[in-house]
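Treating backbone geometry as a discrete language has practical consequences that deserve illustration. The amino acid sequence and the backbone structure tokens for this protein are reproduced below.
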Amino acid sequence: ARRADVPAGLRWLAEAGGRDDVVMLFIAGHGVNAGNGRYYFLPHDARHEALAATAVAEDDIRQALRGVPGRAILFIDTCHAGNAFNARLVKDAADASIVVMAATDADTLAEERSNLGHGVFTYAMLQGLEGGADLIADGRVHTRELAAFVEAEVARLTANKQKPEAYVSSLADFVVAK
């Protein structure tokens, strides 16, 4: 993705689905913490010396999710992803039934594994959605089950080097896969 293309994609989220639908935003790639303590997703054409103009700020992601008419899940598989998962996003998530699952805490790098074909977080998330996270064996995967499964699986695969973070409010625990 190029920076110029991202705003239109984020605006599209507000038009995706209705009040009874779930919109999933999956972001994977590179993420950095800027000197001002803000998280930025780095699209293909981002430049470190001009992050504000060439990267996607946490605020842009949060605003897009706020406009979703139904429920939303943000999966973010980048280094330092936990910094996008901050107090402002937690409040917005609680207010708007948004689930946030981040590959790492604010200070950790996200591991890639060629033998998995994905980043470790993405691999664990896909395994969970395919049924691995059906922890109560009812044929359905709830958001809280997925978060618990991903956390445990990422910890296992990385020998506790990578620590994913998740926020699932009591209002946002819903079936995400069958």
